[in-house]
Amino acid sequence: MPNIPRSTVRRNWLSLASNATSADGATLLCIVPHWLRVFGERLREIVIVVDNDPPSGRIAELQRGQLRPGELQEAISTLERADTRVRFVSLQSLDLATIQRRWFGDARPVRCQAGTPILAFAAAVDQASDDIVLRCDSDMLFCEKGWLLDEAVRSLREGVDVYEPPRLHLGAETAMSSRAFMVAKQSLYGRLPLRNLRLDMLRVLHRMSKGRSPWLAFEQMIARGVAKGQLSHRIGRNTVLGFSVHGLKRSYIASAWFVDVVRSIEAGGIPSDQRAFWDFHPDHWGIRVP
Questions:
Q1: Mean pLDDT, consecutive 10-residue segments, the chain of 290 residues?
Q2: 117-140 in b/e burial notation, b at 16+ Cβ within 10 A?
Q3: Span between the terminal Cα atoms of the chain, in Å
Q4: CA 238 from chain center: how many Å?
Q5: Angstrom distances, CA of residue 65 to CA of 22, 55, 60, 69, 138
Q6: pTM, entire model
Q7: Helix (H, G, I), strand (E, B) or coil at 151
Q8: Cβ distance 30 to 262 under 8 Å?
């Protein structure tokens, strides 16, 4: 691996792209300022694609009773006023047919058979202004000590199509996750569209008989592309450079004590019990939740 001077690497800007629904107002108010603190001047923008259509499948169950459009609109106004780099885009306002053709060819996936987003994730990357894009869920937390400036950008410039920042705990896991990944758009788009996007035929027939989508999850689509040699994928493993943590539950993020947790993660102050898990859990921090 060539030795790239830090002065050269530091000129790389990036867009952070994420997604939200009307259940995410409180989460965004907590997490977006965290992203701004962690990535600072390296962030050209934060673009968040909002899906205004009702959720479906497993996601609908998870968000039952949590959809609060007014709360989301208040969060959008607050965050856009606070920093001009933050912008929100309605998924339904975009040229979705063009995005689908670019990413999926003749296929028209919107959500997978469990209700998780497909088109919205692709649209978030598509709406990013910069070539280097970090696409992450709205509950992802980060500690940044160099992985972004060095390993991630270098990997993408050397030809890795999908790079995942180090997870707080990875172990032997190698499966692609869409929770937090980076791409260089110009290079990636030359390898699209993704192919082999459906479940196997028996499961397709079963899902369709239940009125459910026949599509794989977004991360499974990318994983198939990797398995077929269409795409390359790498997960960073050096957590000394920084790492990601999955926030896991909206109820945690809405708790007053979570602010201190976020600040600790930013500084790399992780309890030993938490280091064995990627998902945040208050028990690992000695926090008792009723």
A1: 38 88 93 96 95 68 64 95 97 97 95 87 97 96 85 92 94 88 96 85 54 81 95 94 91 90 96 95 91
A2: bbbbbbbbbbbbebbbbbbbbbbb
A3: 50
A4: 20
A5: 11, 12, 9, 12, 19
A6: 0.89
A7: helix
A8: yes
